[in-house]
Design goal:
The protein is mainly beta and about 750 residues long. It contains three helices and 56 strands.
Length: about 750
């Protein structure tokens, strides 16, 4: 085939492939063309492609404004998320997809709106029959306002409709409203006031573009026609009773309140009931009484004047105008009429509380017995006496108190010299505690005083206390702590009630200067007896406790005696022994280490290869002791001129070439701090068989030399032994081995 034809065929193939690719590459956007979203909500625009394995995407607005959203691309899909939607998202958005050299675009227009809440109904005032009131219907946070319509209904009746289609277009959330003024009527009670708002945007779901709020109408009538009826009369005698009834009209039904006008013009509230009953009237009960009807929107009042006339006779009450009674005790109040032959009596409290007592009338006297006084009996009691249409009243004040027990002294712990201790002085079941005083003394010295006058009285039995911290010393022993409580009764008694508690002081001294004596010594030979004696100073005298310290640091109790005795010690008795001096003030501890050692045993002295060797042989002399770990081994050669200490290694001494002078007695001494043991052997060195060689000139010269050396060595050993006898012998300087 010609080259030109091949080129034409290849070019056409490439064009066909490009055409096929361009036909398969497509782009779609969702939602299509146009969408709408509420401000504050979330909205996602999705751009996807087909016919391309790895497309690339880009988003922009039609006018190149910021996207105000987040882009997330996965494979053939790209999502632009606007969260939350705002005015800045009201644009036309373009999605561009690129696949190789191919590029496609799709656009979508986003509109925004705001219609988030139901309308709000507001009244200018409570709805009162016949008085015009303005109702306002508000639609909050609306956009676009020019699409808004508001309607107001009363029942099925349309009161007003308002459209905002002519409003200027502004990108902001606005609150729009309509107002209607009308006079409420009785017929409006129970009707509903409905505010309905509509946003005319076709793209919004029908359930979202209309909102309404309904409120049931509550119509009121201010109180009126308030009146008072009095029985039996507005003019009364002392000791009499009167009942006054008040009524008032209105919607809702007015509440009734009774008051009395005082001399200074101030109103004293008496009752919240329609009927006010006054019994045992006194002259001071005369005055103007006012009844007032009150409801949510108004009030109406009227007045009546009562006159109470005097009755001439006198009344006396005993034991007096003030009576102090302890909780649980019995109190008898006596009321006597003077100047009246046939009086009638009645008792009451100032606040009309129950009497909680028994009343007994006999002639011109009446008694009120409170058999067991309680807080409910703390009142001002009034005895009313009626004689010939006249009533007089006398009062007495019963003051209740409680002071039944002596104070209690408690300490935070035992008294220890120099250690701070907290003392608590408690007075139980006191009333009234605002009259209480607590004083703490040590001997005759006041440590602290506390008043409770600043605390308001509460009608209950209270436990009050004084607390302080001091540092006891040994000088305090023999003194006493005194807790003194006084209950001041004000004007009822000249002297306060008083109780006290006394506690003697005994100051302890913590154990100290604990000392241990060991007899005969802390280091002993196994089988020896030993006494460990402990003493400790303190008050009270400390208790002694002996323990042994285990390997894990814990203490194993052994004895509570002053002396710990071992009749025959063993190696396993070695260890640390702890003595503790203990009393309630503390612990003092001292320790000592006991070392039990064993005298050397099973010592063995051996020679290798034999006790009889030939001149020139190598000889090894060994000394061992197997039963004691800390043992000093000393090898010596005995001689008439003195013993010679050999330089041994681990109890072994080696003679490289034995000579005749090496023959003799060898001794091994095994030593510990508590004893020693000796072993010895005799080494025999035989001469060579060849006498010529033996008496060679060299050997002869060596012989003469040795004859001079041996005396010198003897002199050295002699002076060494003299030094040892003088106490200057040292195991450390000697060649020693520990086995």
């Amino acid at each position: 085939m010609p080259v030109k034809m091949v080129a034409i065929f290849g070019a056409s193939t490439v064009l066909w492939i490009l055409f096929a690719v361009s036909q398969a590459f497509k782009i779609e956007i969702s939602p299509e063309y146009k969408t709408i979203a509420q401000i504050g909500d979330s909205m996602a625009l999705t751009c996807s492609t087909t016919g391309c394995e790895s497309p690339s995407f880009s988003w922009r607005t039609q006018i190149d404004s910021p996207l105000n959203g987040k882009v997330r691309t996965e494979g053939s899909k790209s999502v632009l998320t606007m969260e939350p939607v705002s005015f800045e998202n009201e644009h036309s958005y373009l999605c561009t997809a690129t696949c190789g050299s191919g590029k496609l675009e799709r656009s979508i227009h986003v509109d925004v709106y705001s219609f988030p809440k139901d309308p709000v109904i507001q009244f200018s005032a409570p709805l009162e029959v016949g008085k015009p009131v303005t109702v306002k219907c508000l639609a909050p946070d609306i956009y676009p306002v020019y699409r808004l319509e508001i309607e107001l209904f009363k029942g099925d009746h349309l009161m007003k409709r308002q459209e905002f289609f002519s409003e200027e277009m502004t990108k902001s959330l606005e609150t729009k409203s309509l107002e209607v003024t009308f006079p409420p009527a009785i017929e409006d009670i129970g009707k509903a006031l409905v505010c309905r708002a509509k946003l005319h945007i076709d793209q919004i779901d029908s359930t979202l573009k209309e909102r309404e709020t309904a409120k049931e109408l509550q119509v009121y009538i201010s109180p009126t026609n308030t009146s008072i009826s009095v029985h039996p009369s507005t003019k009364l005698h002392e000791g009499g009773a009167v009942t006054m009834t008040c009524s008032s009209e209105g919607l809702p039904a007015p509440e009734i309140f009774w008051s009395k006008k005082l001399d200074n013009g101030v109103l004293q509230l008496l009752s919240g009931n329609a009927t006010l009953t006054l019994i045992a009237m006194r002259m001071e009960d005369s005055g103007i009484y006012m009844c007032e009807g009150v409801n949510l929107i108004g009030r109406d009042k009227t007045e009546v004047e009562l006159v109470v006339q005097e009755k001439p006779f006198t009344v006396d009450i005993s034991p007096g105008s003030q009576v102090a009674a302890q909780v649980g005790d019995a109190v008898v109040l006596t009321c006597a009429a003077i100047g009246c032959d046939a009086p009638s009596f009645s008792w009451r409290t100032q606040s009309d509380s129950p009497l909680n007592g028994e009343v007994r009338n006999e002639g011109a006297k009446s008694t009120l017995t409170l058999s067991s006084v309680s807080f409910e009996d703390e009142h001002s009691y009034r005895c009313a006496v009626t004689c010939l249409q006249r009533t007089l009243e006398k009062r007495t004040q019963v003051e209740v108190y409680s002071f039944p027990e002596d104070p209690e002294i408690e300490m935070s712990g035992p008294l220890v010299h120099g250690r701070p201790v907290t003392v608590n002085c408690t007075v139980p079941n006191v009333y009234p505690f605002d009259h209480l005083e607590i004083e703490l003394l040590k001997g005759e010295t006041t440590l602290m005083k506390k008043y409770f006058l600043e605390e308001m009285g509460i009608r209950s039995l209270e436990t009050k206390s004084l607390e302080m911290t001091f540092i006891p010393t040994t000088e305090d022993t023999g003194k006493s702590l005194v807790c003194l409580a006084r209950l001041h009764s004000g004007e009822m008694e000249s002297e306060p009630k008083q109780r006290q508690s006394v506690q003697p002081l005994y100051v302890n001294v913590a154990p100290q200067e604990t000392t241990i004596w060991v007899s005969p010594s802390p280091t002993l030979e196994e089988g020896s007896p030993v006494n460990l004696t402990c003493s400790s100073d303190g008050f009270p005298a400390p208790k002694i406790l002996w323990s042994r310290q285990l390997n894990n640091g814990e203490l194993q109790p052994l004895s509570e005696n002053t002396t710990l005795t071992f009749m025959s010690t063993k190696m396993e008795d070695s260890g640390i022994y702890v003595c503790e001096g203990i009393n309630q003030a503390g612990v003092s501890r001292k320790s000592v280490e006991l070392i039990i050692q064993v005298s050397p045993k099973d010592i063995q002295l051996t020679v290798f290869p034999s006790k009889s060797v030939k001149e020139g042989d190598t000889v090894i002399i060994s000394c061992t002791c197997g039963n004691v770990p800390e043992t000093w081994i000393i090898l010596k050669k005995k001689a008439k001129t003195g013993d010679m200490v050999l330089k041994s290694v681990d109890g072994s001494y080696t003679i490289r070439q034995a000579q005749l002078q090496d023959a003799g007695i060898y001794e091994c001494e095994s030593k510990t701090e508590v004893g020693s043991q000796l072993r010895s052997l005799t080494l025999d060195v035989k001469g060579r068989e060849n006498n010529k060689d033996y008496f060679s000139p060299e050997l002869l010269a060596l012989y003469f030399a040795s004859s001079l050396v041996i005396p010198a060595i003897g002199m050295i050993i002699y002076f060494a032994r003299k030094a040892n006898m003088k106490g200057s012998y040292s195991l450390v300087e000697a060649q020693k081995s520990k086995v």
